Amino acid sequence: MKYLLVLNINPDVLSALTEDEQQAIFSGHEKFLATVTESGEFHSTVALAEPAKSAVVKVRDGVPAVTDGPFLESKEFLAGYYLLECETPERAYELAAQIPDASIEGLGVEVREVIHEVGL
């Protein structure tokens, strides 16, 4: 079964961390990626630009309009995800706990089962 491990970031939380703590997050992600790649559970991952660099497309009366993002006003935003192939939800939770974001107050890792996927 595939599980999406969603990384939501709060810039206020990150900016309150020291440079060493921020670097530890990046190092932790590298370690996590090595772990899930070695175990064969890794499927894919993406890191996304901050919302200020996004756009929103809306179609009204058949006419598309593109505006600056983000669509929703929120302190947190989707920063990226890991898509993993795990035997059980418990294994997905175990792996999510290894992502550095899970141990930072004010952050966390959302785990969602993939119920439909279309491959290329």
Note down, in words, how this protein is organized:
With 120 residues, the protein is an alpha+beta fold. 28% of the residues lie in helices and 34% in strands. The protein has helices at 11-15, 19-39, 89-96, and strands spanning 2-9, 42-47, 55-60, 63-68, 77-85, 108-113. The strands form 2 sheets. A 4-stranded antiparallel sheet has the order 2-5-1-6. A hairpin with a 2-residue loop joins strand 3 (55-60) and strand 4. 14% of the residues are buried. The mean pLDDT is 92.
| Uncertain residue ranges | none
- Largest sheet data: 4 strands, antiparallel
Number of DSSP-assigned strands: 6
User: Which secondary-structure class do the elements indicate?
Assistant: alpha+beta
Note the total helix count. Answer: 3
